[in-house]
Write a structure and sequence with these properties.
The structure is a single chain. With 671 residues, the chain is an alpha+beta fold. The protein is built from 11 helices and 38 strands. The strands form 8 sheets. Strands 31-32-34-33-35-36-37-38 form an 8-stranded mixed beta sheet, sandwiched between helices. Strands 5, 6, 7, 8 and 9 form a 5-stranded antiparallel beta sheet that branches. Strands 22, 23, 24, 25 and 26 form a 5-stranded antiparallel beta sheet that branches.
Length: 671
Amino acid sequence: MDDFLFLELETDAQAIADFVARENARTEACFSGAARAADEEALRSILEAPDDIPGLARRGNFIYTFRQTAEHPRGRWLRVPDNAPITPDAPWETVFDLDAFCTETGRLWDWRGSQTNPFNASQVLIQLSEDGSDMMRSMEFDLEGCSFVRGGFDFGPDRSSAHWEGPDSLLLASAAPGDATRSGWPGALRRLERGREREDAAQLVRTDGENLELTGWVSRLGGQEVFTIHQEETAIGKARVTLLRADHAPVVLPNPPDTIPRFNHAFCAWVASEEGAHPSGSLVICRHDGSDERILFTPRAGDAVRTADLFFAGDWLVWTEMRGLAPHIMALDMRRADSSPQEIIPPVVAETIWVLPFDTQPDLSDGTLVLTAMGYLAAVQCWLFDLSKGVEGITFRPLLASPAHFDASGCQVASWSARSDDGVEIPYHVVLPKGHAGRGDLPVLLYGYGGFGISIDPGYRALIGKGWIERGGAYVEAHIRGGGEFVPGWHEQAKGAGRHLCYADFAAVAADIVARGISTPDRVACHGSSNGGLLCGVMLTRYPERFGAVWANVGVHDMLNFTRFPAGRAWIDEYGDPDDPEARHWLRAYSPIHNIPDRPLPAALIDTHHRDDRVDPSHSRRFAAALLAAGHKLFFMEHRGGHGGGGASFETAREMALGFAFLRHALKLDQ
C-alpha cells in the first residue's frame, strides 16, 4: 500500500490536490442534477428551520441557543430573558454573530460553545474551531456588552483548552509544543494570568506523555469551598481525578483506573468496568476517601448504566438505567444515608429520555434540570423540573416542542435481534413502512458504529427522515459489540483481538434483514462515520456479498499505520498497537486497505473532510486510490471541514444530499 503514501498530508501537496480535484469532479458529475439539488434544498430548510430552537441552556438570567438560518448559515448565539417564552418570535437578542466574525477575520470558523466563569456568569470564553478542525481558538467575551474583551484572553488555534480559575486567571490545559502528549492533546496544566504572555504561564502539573490528556478546572463544590480539579485521562474512558482544597492535602478519588468518576462536594460515583472489586456495570458511590461505599445498581442481562448519563445535581445523584434499551431515570437523595434510588416518571413515553442540568455552570445553578425526550418518529420535547421537593413533588414545566421535519405517519418502529457468528444475539432497531411484510424489496440503510463504548440511542434523525424514511426506505441502527448499550463487557469483548466480533455482528444484522423478508442484499446499504467508517470499510472488503452499497465517511482504513498521526495514538487502547507484532497480526486481518479482494464489490462512496485532524483524510484517499487501482468502481469526495464536517448549514445539507444521491444510484432507486 506504500504506492499511495503520496496521498498523505505534508508529502506531495500537488499530487494530493490533483487526486482530490479529479475524483471530486467525477463524483460531482455523476450526482449533480435536479434530484440532488432538491434534496439539498429540503435538507437545508430543516437545518435552518425558523421554528426550531435547539440546544437551550441557561447562563445567569438568560436562556441561550445557537441557531443557523438562511441568512446566517454559520450561526448566531442568541438569548432571551429567563422569564420569556421560548418561541421563534420571542425577543431573541444576538449575542455573537459567527457569520459576521468569519467575514471580519477573513477565515472560516465553526462554533464549539463557551466556558462560563463560575465566579461571574457574564464572563465566558467563546471557543471556535478553525475550519472544522480540532484546532481551537478561545477568546474572552463579555455577555453584558456582547463584545470581545479588549486585551482579554485570546489563544490558539491549537488543541489547548482552558477553564476559569478566577476573574483574572485561567487554568490552561496546554497542547503547545513541549506540552502535548504523544496523542497531541494537552499534557501540561498551566496558570495563565491576565496581561501575561502565554509563554510565561506557570506550570502546575504535567501528565505522562503516554497518557491521553490532562485537564483542570475550578469549582465551588457545595456552593462554598473552592476546589481545584486535575483530571488525567490515561485512555479514552479512563481517568484519575485529584481534588485540591485550599490548605488540605490532595485527594485522589478512589474509582478504579478503567473508569471515569462523577463527583460533588462530598461523594463520587462511577460505573464499574473490568478492574476493581465490583461486578462489571455496577453503579458505585462512596465518599471522596472511599468510605460509606454503596452499590446502587447491579445489572441483569440487557441492563446498563452509562457514565455519560450520570451526574450530581446539588445533593442528588441522577442517572439513567437502560433496561432492554428502554430508559428509566433514577435519582438518589444524598442528604439521607438511608435513602434508596427512586424512579422519576417522565411526562411522556419515549424511546430516548435523558436529564441534564439546565444551567451551563453547576456552581451557579438553582437546581433546575431539563428532561429531553425523543424517538425515531417523535421530534424533541423538553421539560424543566427540580428536586427541591423530592421525586414525589416533581412538577414538569414545558420548555419547548420541536416541529416535525418529515412525514412519519406511514412508519413504524420495531426492535429485533440477529444471531452473530458466535451465537450472541445482537439487537437492532428498524424504522419501516407500516404493513411491509415479506415483500423483500425494501431499500434499507443500515447504520452502525461499534467502538469506544459509544452507544447508539434512538433519536429523531431529521435529515435521514426527510431524505430516506419519508421516501419509503427502511432505516436500521445496529447495537453491535464495541458500543456502550449494555454492560462494559459489551464494549470490552470487541477491543483489540476481539475486534472481529463487531464486524461479524454488523454483517449478521444485514443478513437478518434479508432473512426476515424485508429486503435483498442488493437493496441493503450501510453507512458509518469515523470508527463507523472503518466498520463500513470492513463490510466492503470482508462482507461485500451482503450489501448493494457502502457509504464510508471519515473512516480509519489503514490499521497498520494509524499511529503515524498523533491523534491515532489515542486509539491504541481500543484497537491495539500496530508496533506490537501480535496486535499487528489481528489489525492486518481486517484493515480495509490491506484486504482489498479481487472479487466484485458493491458500489461505494468513500468521503472525508479536508481539515480532519482526528482521522487524517489520507485514510480515505489512499483507500479509494487502492480500490481504483485494483479495478473496482467507486466514488470519492473530499468535503470542506473537519472530522464532524463543515460548520455551515449549507455544507451539511450538501454532504448529506450527495450521500442520498449515491444511495439512490447504487440501489437503482431512480430507475
